[in-house]
C-alpha cells in the first residue's frame, strides 16, 4: 500500500512539469503565411502577406480558386500593419512558415534596419527564410503573381533562387541571420538578390496566368544588389554577380565559354571551384591576393579543334583563365565604384594583418577604393565529354568538299 501511494505521488508530481498543449492553436484559426512583402509608404510601411489556401495547395484537381491570397495594409510600424490586416483576413496570420521576405526597392534604398528589427525580434518568425529585393518595383506587386509548377509563389521564388545559385551562379541566397551578421560587421557590406516580373501585373494575379503554356506574366530571379550599411546603392550585372560569387567562394556549378582561334566557341561546365583570399602590406599599403582554382568539363564544341591534342586543351584553359580574371576584376571595379566592400576584404586584412588593420579600418572606405588587388586563376579541364571529335567537324569537311 505504501509503494502504491508513492507511485501515485510520483506520477502526480511529474504531471506538473508536463505543460501539454496549453499554448496550442487550432489550424482552422490560423492563416499560414508563406511570404511577406514590405514596402515604403507615406504612413510608414505597407505590408503584404501571401497566405496559403490549404485546400487548393493540397488538392490534386484543378479548381477555379487560387492557391494563395494576398492581403495588404499600411501602418506606422510593420507590427501595426500586420495587426491591421485582421480587418481583412478571416484568420490571424501565422508567420512561422514564411519562406520568403521581399523588400521593395524604395524601402531598400531608404534603409532596411527599421524593418529588420521587427523581423528579427518577432518570436513566431524563424530565421531560415530567404530575403530579396523587388527590383525597380514594389514587393506588393511581385507577391501578387501566380506561378506555374509551384502552386505557392513563395516556394517558386525560393526554388529559383537556390537553383540559379547552384547551377548558374549570378545570384545568392541570403537568410536573416546572414544579413544581420553582415550588417553588424565593420568590414563587410551585405548583398541581396533582386526579383522582378515581366508582363502585366494584373494578369499575373489571375488564374489566367497559369492556364496557358507560356504564362503572360512571370517571376524572374535577377542579379545581386549591393548595399552600403543598410541602404541599397546599386546593382551588379550578370557577369559582375558571378564575379562576386567566385571571390566569395560561392560557386557550386556554372557555365563558361571561350572563342576558338578561327570561328565558333567551346562551352565548359565549371564543376568545382575553390577561392582563397589573403591580405598583406606592401609599400605600407594594404594588398589583397585572390587565388581561384577551378575544374571544368568540356560541354559543347562548335568549331574545328582537336581535343585529343594536349596543346589544344592547354590553350582553352588559358583562355578561360583570362576570362575569369576579367569577370572577377569587373566585379571588384563595380564594388569600388559603389564604395561597398561586399567581398569582406576588410575581414581578410583583419585576420592576416591584425595590428595594421587597426589603422586601415579607421578609414576603410577610402582604403577600399584604392585597394590593390591581384587575381590569380588556375583552370584544369578534367573531362572532354563522351566523344573525342565533334560531328560539326565532319559537317564542315563535307561542306568544303562539296564546294
From TrEMBL:
Membrane topology: Lipid-anchor
Locations listed in the record: Membrane
Top-rank taxon: Bacteria
UniProt-listed PROSITE patterns: PROKAR_LIPOPROTEIN
Keyword annotations: Germination, Lipoprotein, Membrane, Palmitate, Signal
Claim: Membrane is one of the keywords in the record: yes
InterPro entries in the record: GerAC_N, Spore_GerAC-like, Spore_GerAC-like_C, Spore_GerAC_C_sf
Domain Spore germination GerAC-like C-terminal: 224-385
Spore germination protein N-terminal domain residues: 24-193
Family, per entry: Belongs to the GerABKC lipoprotein family.
Protein name in the entry: Ger(X)C family spore germination protein
Amino acid at each position: 500500500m505504501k509503494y502504491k501511494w508513492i507511485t501515485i505521488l510520483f506520477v502526480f508530481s511529474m504531471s506538473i512539469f508536463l505543460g501539454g498543449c496549453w499554448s496550442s492553436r487550432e489550424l482552422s484559426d490560423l492563416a499560414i503565411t508563406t511570404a511577406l512583402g514590405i514596402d515604403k509608404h507615406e504612413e510608414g510601411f505597407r505590408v503584404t502577406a501571401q497566405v496559403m489556401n490549404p485546400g487548393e495547395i493540397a488538392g490534386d484537381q484543378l479548381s477555379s480558386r487560387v492557391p494563395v491570397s494576398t492581403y495588404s495594409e499600411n501602418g506606422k510600424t510593420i507590427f501595426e500593419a500586420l495587426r491591421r490586416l485582421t480587418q481583412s483576413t478571416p484568420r490571424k496570420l501565422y508567420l512561422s512558415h514564411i519562406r520568403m521576405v521581399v523588400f521593395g526597392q524604395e524601402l531598400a534604398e531608404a534603409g532596411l534596419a527599421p524593418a529588420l528589427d521587427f523581423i528579427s525580434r518577432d518570436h513566431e518568425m524563424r530565421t531560415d527564410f530567404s530575403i530579396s529585393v523587388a527590383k525597380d518595383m514594389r514587393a506588393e506587386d511581385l507577391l501578387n503573381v501566380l506561378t506555374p509548377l509551384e502552386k505557392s509563389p513563395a516556394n517558386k521564388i525560393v526554388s529559383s533562387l537556390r537553383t540559379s545559385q547552384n547551377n548558374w551562379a549570378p545570384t545568392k541566397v541570403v537568410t536573416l541571420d546572414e544579413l544581420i551578421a553582415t550588417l553588424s560587421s565593420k568590414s563587410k557590406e551585405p548583398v541581396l538578390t533582386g526579383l522582378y516580373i515581366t508582363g502585366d501585373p494584373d494578369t499575373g494575379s489571375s488564374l489566367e496566368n497559369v492556364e496557358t503554356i507560356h504564362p503572360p506574366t512571370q517571376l524572374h530571379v535577377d542579379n545581386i544588389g549591393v548595399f552600403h550599411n543598410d541602404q541599397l546603392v546599386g546593382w551588379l550585372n550578370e557577369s559582375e554577380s558571378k564575379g562576386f560569387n567566385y571571390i566569395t567562394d560561392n560557386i557550386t556549378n556554372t557555365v563558361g565559354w571561350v572563342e576558338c582561334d578561327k570561328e565558333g566557341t567551346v562551352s565548359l561546365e565549371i564543376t568545382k571551384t575553390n577561392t582563397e583570399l589573403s591580405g598583406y602590406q606592401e609599400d605600407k599599403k594594404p594588398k589583397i591576393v585572390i587565388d581561384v582554382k577551378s575544374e571544368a568539363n568540356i560541354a559543347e564544341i562548335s568549331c574545328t579543334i582537336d581535343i585529343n591534342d594536349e596543346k589544344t586543351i592547354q590553350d582553352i584553359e588559358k583562355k578561360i583563365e583570362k576570362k575569369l580574371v576579367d569577370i572577377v576584376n569587373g566585379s571588384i571595379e563595380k564594388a569600388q565604384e559603389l564604395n561597398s566592400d561586399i567581398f569582406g576584404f576588410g575581414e581578410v586584412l583583419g585576420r592576416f594583418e591584425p595590428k595594421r588593420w587597426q589603422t586601415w579600418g579607421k578609414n576603410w572606405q577610402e582604403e577600399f577604393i584604392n585597394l590593390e588587388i591581384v587575381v590569380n586563376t588556375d583552370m584544369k579541364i578534367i573531362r572532354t565529354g563522351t566523344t573525342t571529335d565533334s560531328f560539326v567537324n565532319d559537317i564542315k569537311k563535307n561542306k568544303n568538299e562539296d564546294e
